[in-house]
Amino acid sequence: MVTAICFLQIDVDKINQAGSAISNLPGVTAVYSVTGSIDLITVLEVRSHEDVAKVVTDGIAKVPGVQSTETHIAFRTYRNGDIEAAFSIGLD
Predict the structure, then answer these.
(1) What residue ranges define each of the domains in the chain, with the CATH number in brackets?
(2) Per-residue pLDDT tens digits for 40-80
(3) CB count, 10 Å around CB of 28?
(4) How many CA atoms lie within 13 A of 56 on its CB side?
C-alpha cells in the first residue's frame, strides 16, 4: 500500500465543490480544508506509485478549480498506538 499526501491550491470560490468532488475519487481516503498557503490536503491510499500518479493527474488535477498540486509519498506511518508503545518500552 502506498500513502501519499497531496497539497492543493484551489480557486477560492470552488474550494467546497472541489473538496467534495475530490473526496469521491477512488484512492482518496480524506480531504482536509486547511489554513495557510494551501487550500486542501488530500490523503491517498493506493496499491502502487503508478496509481498515485493516475489519481493525481487523471483525477485530482482535472477537478474544476484545482490550480496546482504538490504530492508527497509517505515512507513510514506513525499511529497513535505505535507512538504510545514506543514510549512505554521498559517503563512500568
Answers:
(1) 2-88 (3.30.70.920)
(2) 999 999 999 999 999 999 999 999 999 999 999 998 877 76
(3) 20
(4) 25
